[in-house]
Amino acid sequence: MQAEIPQDFISAVPKADLHLHLDGSLRLETLIDLARERHIKLPSYEVEGLKKAVYKAHYENLGEYLEGFKYTCAVLCDEESLERCACELMEDSLAEGVRYIEVRFAPQLHLHGDLSMVRVTAAVVRGLETAATQHNRSPDVAAGRDVPCHFGIICCALRKFLPSHGPYYEGLLRALPQTPANESYAIASLELARAAVAMRDKHGLPVVGFDLAGEEAGYPASYHSRAYTYAHRHFLKKTVHAGEAYGPESIFQAITRCHANRIGHGTFLFASQMVRDEQDEAVGVYVERLAEYIASQRITLEVCLTSNLQTTPTITSVGHHPIREMLKRNIAVAICTDNRLVSHTTVSHELGLVADELEVSVHQFRNLVLAGFKGAFFAGTYNEKRTYFRKILDRYLALEREFGLRE
Predict the structure, then answer these.
(1) Is residue 59 in a domain?
(2) I want to staple 405 with a disulfide (CB 3.0 to 4.6 A). Which of 260, 335, 370, 400 is the partner?
């Protein structure tokens, strides 16, 4: 039975954000401040001017959507800026009721001089910890009127890169002039996987996962199978941007070649017309079995509705997004922001889109919110995760009663 889910309730309940890019989630005011301090040229140094020039509500294509990242990555050039932006990201998330986040970024994008991957990641952790500690010491948490927050770091490799992406990539490509590009991509991702495991095991940083992002078509995840195998052998959990701009085969490859525990986006999971390597008569069976496998194995899909609407012209509304079919099949779906700045969104807004435009019951909506916590990679033990989830569930159910929601 469909139920009205009030926006006040959505804002109040504890939420998770599993797919959250640091460099896509800066405050515009901070971007401008950092650019001025570091003498980085922007199209405008006014908030409204920058919105009009770069960070729009709607984009013509994926290329225009990605344009804004060159400015955010440029200002994230030292430990101070990384720490500040991470702290503000946690503050902004907490302010809208988010109590668990996994922040993903590509440490290699920020390397220069003596700024190592450990220093880059440690700076982000310090920023997140500053805001998290303040919340967790609050009177509401102490009195049980609120729940503590937790976070994790996901190290993100790139499917492809150019020398213009930064000194690390420029140096790698220069050092391997005769090496095919796909092998250079593989070398970089393997180095990052090794660093991610070391940062977790030797440096005690809360690195909880490994990711692969970037252009899918022509740059398959299989190039990075060595990195994912390394992560897999060292019990580092894995997610892959797949099915965002390519078909079901990209998702299949993420699961079979990269041991993915979760899938970033998964938008084209049901797009049988995009399957290329199967016989026509077998395509339907292939897609059906892939979807059933994902559902039965509880491989969480990190769905980012606004981001998909901005970058996928064929999806014109939430009603036309495949999330409807995902929920119908009881696939584990976690609603995420992707990029809070570039997509002008929050988790509360994304969940509001679901509540307003899809027929969801109180029970279905609860499952959707809780899937973000169930699918979390989490930095602690499984028992600690279960204890934390119990607190989240108790708080959620108490708010359901407070708002008079009935199944």
Answers:
(1) no
(2) 400
